[in-house]
């Protein structure tokens, strides 16, 4: 695709005014577990008799590690590994990420390494394979499979994050049950879970998870929950027999700790960086409103959304760009179709990988969004800018929000300075930082 700065598109957008913007701070509940406290927290939790008694000397224990950008995931994983060792067990790590990493063993190990999870840092083996064993069929008639290395272990510990999903709603969304069926199911299991469509996935996950709990040696789960600042705020161990009852309760807690864009609505949303380390669809639609299916809703309401950069941790997987109104040439040039399409084929959701409008620069990405909005005063466009969908404590808002913020119309939002023009470098890429 030929995208050239200075061509017809650039000329059409040149006169589109980008409004002055100001820095703002959003304040949310901030209860958190400090990183240095995590090993002790996990050790205390797992030292409870009902968990500790399950780890016997000499037994091999598979510990799951996923593909999401979970805060402190390396510290959490290492603490679980160390606890198993302290009980005389022989731990190893299993990538549990469905089809991510290009649906290859090497790709999945590469993703873990980007999160500082390696054999050297964890002090144990990482057994990465796409091979699965068949466990049986769910009550809905769906075949249930499990990672072969995990199945052959003497026990499995399901370590994961528990949070609302980005494409459907149900009692079980992203958490232990999804990790057991989608993550440990590898590409085959993930595709089976998704094959009936996102309107049915909320039924497939728990019914298939029941088969895993019955046929596999799940010892317990250790889900973590994050607060609105992407900080670890809760870690709780759950015995295998209690997962089906406890997970929905913790999901409600996770919902209550989610961040949001407090202004609620606007005209244009600008996201500085997207990536698989932020969400399966590049950004969390629970924040941005860019849902890939009609089976979930929420987030800010805007007419247009643009994405400016792709995170290095995504390794070229730009899934989610199809949900934007516009992206930059930078993102387009980094796209690795071999990393993106396996996710789409597995989930059966193609919208996330479509190509939106591609423009030459950050400035043009913002301009095309403003220019194409309907029924607004484009000289006073309401623009919200965020660094990514995980870190929205510090944001930028356009001048049209300023007086309302100063007047306290948006409780929890504080103006940090006065509106000023955004600054761009010689290539028209934005250089005004969000955090001041």
Question: How does this structure look, described?
Answer:
The structure is a single chain. This protein is an alpha/beta fold. The protein folds into 2 domains: 8-28 and 260-415, no CATH class; 35-256, Rossmann fold (3-Layer(aba) Sandwich). 31% of the residues lie in helices and 19% in strands. It is built from 16 helices and 17 strands. The strands form 3 sheets. The protein has an 8-stranded mixed beta sheet. The protein is globular and about 70 Å long.
Outline the biggest β-sheet.
8 strands, mixed
Q: What's the total count of β strands? A: 17
How many angstroms separate the termini? 37 Å
CATH architecture of the largest domain: 3-Layer(aba) Sandwich
Question: What's the SSE blueprint?
Answer:
Blueprint: H1 8-13, E1 21-26, H2 38-46, H3 49-52, E2 60-65, H4 73-86, E3 90-95, H5 105-114, H6 119-122, E4 125-126, E5 132-137, E6 143-147, H7 148-152, E7 155-161, H8 176-183, H9 186-194, H10 201-215, E8 218-226, E9 232-235, E10 238-239, H11 243-256, E11 268-274, H12 285-288, E12 304-310, E13 326-328, H13 329-334, H14 337-347, E14 357-359, H15 362-371, E15 383-386, E16 394-398, H16 402-406, E17 413-415
Parallel strand pairs: 2-3, 2-7, 3-4, 7-8, 11-12, 11-15, 12-13, 13-14
Antiparallel strand pairs: 1-16, 1-17, 5-6, 8-9, 8-10, 15-16
Helix pairs in contact: 2-4, 8-10
């Amino acid at each position: 695709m030929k995208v050239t700065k200075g061509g017809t598109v650039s000329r059409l957008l040149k006169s589109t005014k980008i409004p002055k913007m100001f820095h703002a701070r959003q304040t949310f509940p901030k209860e958190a577990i400090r990183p240095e406290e995590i090993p002790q927290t996990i050790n205390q939790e797992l030292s409870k008799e009902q968990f500790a008694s399950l780890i016997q000397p000499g037994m091999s224990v598979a510990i799951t590690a996923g593909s999401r950008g979970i805060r402190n995931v390396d510290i959490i994983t290492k603490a679980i590994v160390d606890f198993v060792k302290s009980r005389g067990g022989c731990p190893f790590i299993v990538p549990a990420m469905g089809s991510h990493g290009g649906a290859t063993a090497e790709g999945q190990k590469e993703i873990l390494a980007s999160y500082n999870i390696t054999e050297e840092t964890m002090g144990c083996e990482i057994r990465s394979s796409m091979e699965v064993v068949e466990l049986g069929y769910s009550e809905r008639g769906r075949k249930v499979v499990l990672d072969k290395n995990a199945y052959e272990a003497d026990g499995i510990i399901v370590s994961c994050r528990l949070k609302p999903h980005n494409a459907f709603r149900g009692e079980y969304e992203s958490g232990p049950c999804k990790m057991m069926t989608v993550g440990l199911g590898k590409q085959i299991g993930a595709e089976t879970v998704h094959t009936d469509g996102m309107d049915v996935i909320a039924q497939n996950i728990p019914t298939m998870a029941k088969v895993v709990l019955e046929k596999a040696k799940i010892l317990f789960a250790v889900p973590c929950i994050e607060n609105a600042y992407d900080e670890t705020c809760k870690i709780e161990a759950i015995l295998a027999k209690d997962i089906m009852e406890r997970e929905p309760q913790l999901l409600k807690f996770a919902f209550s700790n989610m961040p949001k864009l407090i202004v609620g609505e606007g005209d244009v949303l600008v996201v500085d960086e997207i990536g698989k380390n932020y969400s399966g669809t590049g950004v969390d639609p629970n924040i941005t409103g860019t849902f890939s299916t009609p089976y979930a809703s929420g987030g800010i309401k805007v007419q247009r959304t643009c994405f400016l950069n792709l995170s290095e941790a995504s390794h070229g997987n730009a899934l989610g760009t199809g949900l934007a109104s516009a992206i930059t040439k930078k993102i387009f040039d980094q796209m690795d179709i071999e990393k993106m399409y396996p996710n789409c084929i597995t989930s059966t959701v193609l919208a996330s990988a479509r190509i939106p409008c591609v423009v030459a620069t950050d400035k043009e990405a913002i301009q095309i969004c403003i220019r194409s909005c309907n029924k607004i005063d484009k000289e006073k466009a309401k623009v919200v800018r965020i660094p990514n969908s995980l870190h929205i404590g510090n944001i930028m808002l356009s001048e049209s929000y300023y007086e309302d913020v100063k007047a306290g119309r948006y409780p929890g939002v504080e103006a940090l300075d006065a509106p000023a023009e955004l600054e761009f470098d010689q290539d028209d890429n934005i250089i005004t930082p969000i955090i001041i």
